[in-house]
Amino acid sequence: MDQSERILVNEEVVKKNKLWPNFIKAKLGFRNHWYPVMFGKEIEEGKPVKAMLCGENLLLNRIDGKVYAIKDRCLHRGVAFSKKPECYTKETITCWYHAWTYRWDDGSLCDIMTDPKSDMIGKHRLKTYTVQEAKGLVFIFLGDIEPTPLINDVPPGFLDEGRAIRGIKREVGSNWRIAAENGFDSTHVFIHKDSKLIPNNETVIPLGFATDREEEAKGTLWEVVNNEDGPKGVYDNIGQHAVPVVEGKVDGETVLRPVIGGDKRIANQISIWMPGALKVDPFPDPSLIQFEWYVPRDENSHWYIQTLGKEVANEAEELEFEKDFNEKWEDWGLRGFNDDDIWAREAMEEFYKDDWGWIKEQLFEPDGNIVAWRQLASEANRGVQTLEDL
Fold it and tell me: Which stretches are annotated as coiled coil (predicted)?
């Protein structure tokens, strides 16, 4: 999308909503945070791969096993290297237009093959990004400060030793904030009432939750974690402090009941973490935990990175988990269940696209956890990504 076509943050909406102004401004996400951009297996040795993160165009390459990332834009005339990547040495990339050549590790302009005596050589650098691989994912620190430890920007338990991770990545046509709230929304379980996961995995999901007003008044329906060190997030406790709705009624008449596939209990604890990651424990099976990220791509789309984690004691158990993932969990859970979420996010996009949705919406009692998340994200972020940063 050309910058002139971008939809800017509606400053009038920001002024009207004083509760979470930085959340509204963060259409492109937050700066100075770690984000997963893809799986490590997507980047082969010596084969540059492009990606978009928070509106910035990046180019990644694996050199001697290590992943590097640079801005996908030549300093000379602004063309993207990814249009025709040319790497004449493994340590460098050369612009296909005028042969300006840069080093992957520090972005320095080391040569210009069309004018080897140019005074520009050695005086300019491309923007580079700090990269870290963990649990099969490639994380990039997008920002201006010294990178914080990765453990501060992932859900608790994700990096635990002995936890095997498998997952998929998809591009979804909605803003990342809508995606995050969809995942953390307690009563959106209604859209999953016909999911194939329920009968296939012998479980049950209620139609919704009747909020306990006393628990709501005591503030026990959610818990905010905003310590100086460590991840920052919100726990949704509505499952423990609310009554599951097992009859859908209209005018007092029961018109709907949840499908009961079995008695397996899942999704006992749901939490959301900065800069935009959900943890569902357990899910989609009592033996698994789902960790998923809503990574800002641009204003109107996000990378949906879905992973499942399982504790394994050895390589044989990890291979068995991988087999189960490929044969059922990706199909039943990440696709069969979460495809409903993708559809819902894209259906919401139009309402929130111009930012007025944050003013026009009419929230109800179970949405208190979403309000808590918005406030945390607005206050605990390390910076807001803007068009000026691109």
Answer: none
Rounded Cα distance between 278 and 287, Å, is 17
pLDDT in tens, 333-371: 999 999 999 999 999 999 999 999 999 999 998 899 999
What per-residue confidence (pLDDT) applies to 166? 98
Phi, psi (degrees; rounded to nearest 5) at 234: -135, 130
Task: Encode pLDDT of 107-156 as tens digits.
Answer: 999 999 999 999 999 999 999 999 999 999 999 999 999 999 999 999 99
Secondary structure of residue 132 in the 3-state scheme: strand
Nearest residue to 133 (alpha-carbon basis) of 199, 87, 68: 68
Residue 299, classed as helix, strand or coil, is: coil
Strand partners, 204: 260
Query: pTM of the predicted model, to two decimals?
Result: 0.96
Token output for 3: 């910058």
Contact 230, 148 (CB under 8 A): no
Q: Is the pLDDT of residue 209 over 80?
A: yes
In the three-class reduction of DSSP (H, G, I as helix; E, B as strand; rest coil), residue 55 is classed as coil
What token pair was written down for 367?
């949405």
Instruction: Give the residue, 250 or 1, on which the prediction is more confident.
Output: 250
Residue 323 domain-assigned? yes
Tell me, yes or no, whether 231 lies in a domain. Answer: yes
Structural domain containing residue 271: 148-389
Ranges of H-type helices in 222-267? 238-241
- Residue 324, C-beta contacts closer than 8 angstroms, at least 6 positions apart: none
In a domain? residue 116: no
Q: How many domains does the chain have?
A: 1
CATH number at residue 344: 3.90.380.10
- Beta-carbon-side half-sphere exposure of residue 301 (alpha carbons within 13 Å): 14
Instruction: Give domain status of residue 236, yes or no.
Output: yes
Residue written as token pair 């009207």:
16
